[in-house]
Amino acid sequence: MEETRKDSRRESMFVEDTAVDWRGRPCKPNKHGGMTAAVFVLGLQAFEMMAIAAVGNNLITYVFNEMHFPLSKSANTVTNFIGTVFLLSLFGGFLSDSYLGSFWTMLIFGFVELSGFILLSVQAHVVQLQPVECNMMQVNRRCEEAKGYKASIFYGALYLVALGSGCLKPNIISHGADQLRNDTDLKQSKKLSTFFNCAYFAFCTGELVALTVLVWVQTHSGMDVGFGVSTVAMAMGLMCLISGSFIYRNQPPRGTIFTPIAQVFVAAIRKRKQICPSNAEMLHGSQKIMSTNSTSSTLIHTHKFRFLDKACIKIESGNKTSDESPWRLCTVSQVEQVKILLSVVPIFACTIIFNTILAQLQTFSVQQGTAMNTHLTKNFQIPPASLQSIPYMMLILIVPLYETAFVPMARKITGKDSGISPLQRVGTGLFIATFSMVSAALIENKRRNNAIKFNKTLSIFWIAPQFLIFGLSEMFTAVGLVEFFYKQSIKADGMQSFLTAMTYSSYSFGFYLSSLLVSLVNKITSSSSSSTTGWLSENDLNKDRLDLFYWLLAALSLINFFNYIFWSRWYSYNPISSLPTPPLHDLDPDPLHGLEEDPHKKGNFNSLIV
Questions:
Q1: Are the CB atoms for 309 and 335 separated by under 8 Å?
Q2: pLDDT tens digits, residue range 265-297?
Q3: Helices and strands per DSSP (H, E), number in the chain
């Protein structure tokens, strides 16, 4: 009896492998998956990032100079576009987990994104589809803004790209990581950590090429040629994806992921007047593997969100337990999956300010560069958008060094497969990001004073530190967040793409918050008695107070860091129920080793269920 109990406990720690090949047949470990298959996915990651980064990072220049939108509207157009890309990642994750699977989702929406690039290229090339040529930087001159069918074509093309890219992004990460899930125990955890670092390296490579070669092409050969090169890059990414079709491990869709979640809330509300039993073993499904599909693993009961436990209370009539529908009675495993989703929301929310800072580096910092001396030599000028390539040059060197030197050293000290835990990595990045805005505020104040008082133009390299600092912080936060959410998805079975998409939707909310802050700051500062115009209401940065806006973001970032510390500690402390369990030394090694655990409670199962 005890041996059977131990076997069941071991089985509950792993998710049964249900991956299939391109024909729907069970995968063979020696033929499908592994790092070889993941490389094809990383190829798509690099080329797709190359294509969209070249458009997104220099889009404000195109919108301002070619579409003739005012500066604040141009900045909001860019942030809304990028925000929509990442918000649509939730839709892509939902489609993948519920109906299409990650491969078909990537293939379908990859071609949607490709069509958007083609349409952008056509509009940028055909003069009749653009407003009359006009110099927006010329003083006291009003240029005709793109309206009517011209604006419709622009927005249509832009949001085809957003739809395609948004639905691609979470599936690239989850599909690539799924290739390594046929390995078990510590080997799987180490390989996953390596894959996430490799994925970020591919991301940096794509960004670097986009911000140097492609932006240079846009500046010197025209936006139509630049958009055309992005189209070619996207086509090459799709070729990489298709090339690995025969060796992929594909996780089949599990049906709608929202129905089981809704069932938990409905059942808990219906039984809101019931009292939770003091003994967790009395809850439905607390001692056996039981879920809506045979591949889900049972999660250990925790004491967070106790209200939801009422969904597991059995209603007895007489001596018999009534047969209740799934909308009235749920299993502990089902409830614990919902608890996982609720627990990660505060962590997710703490990264929104971080991405609001990123939005400034892709909008106002680019415009900041246009007001500076861009000459490297007499005959060579640096496109302002290319300045964003500086941190990626650094990261191309640092990311491999982080993986090969820092992680093994930290692993010996902490015992964690990823060196430091994903939550610690995220927190480190959030702290560093604050100094990016401090640097930006100081340099903008210096640039503005030199321009107004001495009629001097600073070199564009003065704003390089803000990009370098943020690049370093992104290496910690972005990779840590993706790894954290994917490891949660292993426990919330069938939600790999959706939970990974939550990482990207944080970017969305960050960019939307940026648009809101710009409008709000303009409204508040323009109505104050000390000034007639807002901090960001002019097209001339010398008249604006961008430095004060940067200081505001630095303050918000620091407050956000302390907020993150509170929620990460809350997340890490996750007391479990008093279910009798075998000793730790009788169990198999933890497949999710490296996640946060409560250092004050030795021998608990926190790293398995948090």
A1: yes
A2: 888 888 887 777 766 666 665 554 333 333 444
A3: 20, 2
